[in-house]
Amino acid sequence: xxxxxxxxxxxxxxxxxxxxxxxxxxxxxxxxxxxxxxxxxxxxxxxxxxxxxxxxxxxxxxxxxxxxxxxxxxxxxxxxxxxxxxxxxxxxxxxxxxxxxxxxxxxxxxxxxxxxxxxxxxxxxxxxxxxxxxxxxxxxxxxxxxxxxxxxxxxxxxxxxxxxxxxxxxxxxxxxxxxxxxxxxxxxxxxxxxxxxxxxxxxxxxxxxxxxxxxxxxxxxxxxxxxxxxxxxxxxxxxxxxxxxxxxxxxxxxxxxxxxxxxxxxxxxxxxxxxxxxxxxxxxxxxxxxxxxxxxxxxxxxxxxxxxxxxxxxxxxxxxxxxxxxxxxxxxxxxxxxxxxxxxxxxxxxxxxxxxxxxxxxxxxxxxxxxxxxxxxxxxxxxxxxxxxxxxxxxxxxxxxxxxxxxxxxxxxxxxxxx
Length: 419
What we know:
By secondary structure, the chain is of the alpha/beta class. The protein folds into 2 domains: 2-53 and 370-381 and 401-417, Urease, subunit C, domain 1 (Roll), CATH 2.30.40; 57-356, Alpha-Beta Barrel (TIM Barrel). The strands form 4 sheets. Strands 1, 2, 3, 4, 5, 16, 17 and 18 form an 8-stranded mixed β-sheet that branches. The chain contains 14 helices and 18 strands. α8 links the parallel β13 (228-231) and β14. It has helices at 76-85, 104-114, 139-144, 160-170, 184-187, 196-201, 208-225, 237-248, 259-263, 285-297, 312-315, 332-336, 342-345, 351-356; strands at 2-11, 21-27, 30-35, 45-47, 53-56, 58-63, 88-93, 120-125, 149-150, 177-178, 192-193, 205-206, 228-231, 252-258, 302-304, 372-383, 400-411, 414-417.
């Protein structure tokens, strides 16, 4: 298979061709030639798109597919096809299935199910057995089977000593531990950000303090143990400040932000639409601005969709009864590109997550494996339900104005384009 990508602006700071418009010739999955103009031949598959831009393949570090156990929400097959058409050449899949991915066989099952697709699947295994937070899972065995990190999805580790021991143990094999930032006793039964809007709407609040206390605890533990720690999906002003200060002290801490926390606020809750019920909750405009600033400054290392499909039976309920979560693969790029400039966030979906999760770097350079996302950063549109490719339709971005169109990917010797 020979593919010729025509007149593409290359966005890749590691490439000699960064910010240049070039033709790219790919043969059997390898970038063979990059030139101003490459003549077309009959046997070539030609890719020509309006205002075409390409970057190294996007990597989403927090994706949930239902399989195994919740296939009605999303199968691995459909999920990886959605990811490809959303611009992602790799996704890290959370352990929140049934059964939980907490052993070697379960990790191998996920990897086997993900084989052969354009988008590469990487398992995040559970940190504790059955994600119950009581005893550590078999981390080393799961890493040897292909797990790239360990975390109990959306479940904080209450036991301080267990978290300490996990960080210490993971250092023996350079494992990456994730700690979800939520103090359950402070958050209690809250379902929305504690503030003016939750008070007006009569919704039980989750204080920003619940997140910040847990992060402070984890940073103290990390300072004691050494090693490295990743804090997924932060959402408050002070969380950004805490991590900024920890990095200044030299701690090996990284963090991510979910696209909905980066772009939406708790003002959305006035319609009591359960698609806006997320964990952590949507917070204030000040939090959004701090998170955006954190991305620009590099304090926040990763932007994730935190894609979490929920079937209609568990989502289309009263706000207090509905499950947390929104899908986000299809809307991540366009939503972030609506509030930040491309140069301010491209590393947070390409090189930075790969480095943090221990994956090989990619580059749009001659002789390198083609791992490329294709997009137009300037097309404005309104995201509507027909734009959703996922099986579940629980998107917080329906009817939101967007900027940027994803064309598809070239990865794993496969060209996947949106129709």
